[in-house]
Amino acid sequence: AQSVTQPDIHITVSEGASLELRCNYSYGATPYLFWYVQSPGQGLQLLLKYFSGDTLVQGIKGFEAEFKRSQSSFNLRKPSVHWSDAAEYFCAVGAGPSGTYKYIFGTGTRLKVLA
Amino acid sequence: NAGVTQTPKFQVLKTGQSMTLQCAQDMNHNSMYWYRQDPGMGLRLIYYSASEGTTDKGEVPNGYNVSRLNKREFSLRLESAAPSQTSVYFCASSERGGNQPQHFGDGTRLSIL
Q: Buried b vs exposed e over A32-68: b needs ≥16 C-beta within 10 Å?
C-alpha cells in the first residue's frame, strides 16, 4: 500500500539557518511527489512537484527538493530560512494509475523559526 | 481570481444536526476532493469526484455524503453530525490525473457539540 512518512513532527531553526524537512514514501511505481505549505488558518499551497527527469526540483519561495529513488525520499530544503517560512509542511504522493486521482499526504512537519 | 471557495468558514453544530459544506472552483478543473484535517493525522480523503457526474469514496467516507452539482460545485453533507466529525474540512480541485497538483480552499472549521 502507498504511504508517506514525515518523521519530524516539529522542527525549530534560527532565521538564516538552512532547513531540511524529510519525507519518505512507499509506492510501487514511479511516484508523483509534491510538497505543500500551510500557513495558520489557510489552505495548502503547492511549493513544488516531481514527476520525472531531473531529480532536483526548484519551487517557489526559494525551496527545492531532491528525489532519491534508492532511499525512497523526497526531502525539502532551503538554504536560508526566513521568519515568514514558519508554517506546516506536507509531503504528498499522487497515487494510482491514470484514472484514479487520489493523493496520500504525510502527517506534516510544523516549522518554527527563531528570530 | 478566486480559485477554490468554501462556505461557510466557521460553523458550530449540535450533535444530530445536519449541515452542507459548499465548495466551488473557477479553474474549470475536472476533479474535486473533500478532505478532513485533524491534529497529527495530516489530510484524509473523504470523497472525491474524478469528473462531473461521478463520485467515489475516499479513506474516511462514513457519516458523509457528497454531490457533484456541476463542474464547478462539489458539496459535502453531514446528515447527523457527531462530535467525532469536529475537524477542519478542505475542498480541493485539480485537472485529471494523479500527477496534477491540487488547489485548496481555505477550509471550513466545524465544531460539533
A: bbbbbbbeeeebbbbbbbbeeeeeebebeeebbbbbe
